[in-house]
Design goal:
The chain is an alpha+beta fold. The protein has one domain: Gcn5-related N-acetyltransferase (GNAT) (Aminopeptidase, 3-Layer(aba) Sandwich). The protein is about 30% helix and about 25% strand. The chain is built from 5 helices and 7 strands; from the N terminus they run βαααβββαβαββ. It is globular and about 40 Å long.
Length: about 170
């Protein structure tokens, strides 16, 4: 039997100014306010739309800042490898939705698995969370395999305005 070894990661929170700088693609300004060194990927075109949503969200709903997207940090390598977090605090039914993306230079190294595990543990420790959701494109085989391997079960579908068709998966924390 083989065991999957994942790197240890930390999910590092960013303040609203740093979120805004990343949304604007201004890596220098983002790094000036970030508690860890960032990577060009985090200020690049794949991540900017998410940072933009979160930068607005934390201004409109300040308590959501504790829940939203963070930097996935490898403390051993002292390296920012991606982003992960929730779309916001638990809704009225106790549901939180995960989101994550790993820099292409660091994919297939266990970082998405480690980040997802950290998010599940976070949800399990948080009062009021009863369901963790992951909405994944049917074309994203690696992410589908990842969520299914972590006990997520398909419960439906939705069409996201930006991402198109997604399969909704849920699990208890």
């Amino acid at each position: 039997m083989t065991t999957e070894r994942s790197p240890r990661v930390e999910l590092v929170q960013l303040d609203r100014e740093t979120l805004r700088a990343l949304a604007d693609g201004d890596l220098a300004a983002a790094e000036a306010g970030a508690p860890v060194p960032l990577s060009p990927y985090l200020a690049g075109p794949e991540c900017r739309p998410v940072w933009d949503i979160r930068a607005v969200q934390v201004v409109v709903d300040p308590p959501s800042a504790d829940w939203v997207t963070r930097v996935v940090w490898d403390p051993e390598r002292r390296l920012a490898v991606g982003r992960a977090g929730f779309h916001g605090p638990p809704d009225g039914d106790g549901m939180v939705e995960v989101g994550y993306s790993i820099d292409p230079d660091h994919r297939r190294q266990g970082y998405a698995r480690a980040a997802l595990r950290a998010l599940i543990a976070w949800a399990a420790d948080a009062p009021g969370v009863s369901v963790v959701r992951a909405s994944v494109s049917p074309e994203n085989t690696p992410s589908l395999n990842l969520v299914r391997a972590h006990g997520f079960v398909a419960v439906g579908e939705q069409v996201d305005e930006e991402d198109g068709l997604e399969i909704i998966h849920e699990r208890r924390p």
